[in-house]
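Predict the 3D structure for this chain.
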Amino acid sequence: MSYPLEQQQQPAPPSPVYDVVPTANGGGSYGPVIGVLAVIAVLGVIAGIVGRLCSGRRIFGYGYDFEGWIGASLVVIMQVVTKL
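Done. Predicted structure below.
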């Protein structure tokens, strides 16, 4: 009877070595995110102020009747045009 030749176990391939470079700030930066959120908030406040002023509501003690101004301006423009 012949016995199979014992096979030698091959050593496992070495695991890859990764060069890890530590970062000073922990990996992420929140500065740009906070900056973008601040800009969005400021633009939202400005849009709210413009919306209130254009609708004729008072804000900070000042009122601005945008629709009334447009109506008065159109009346003046029509008078000037009809005189020509």
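Strands lie at 58-59, 62-63.
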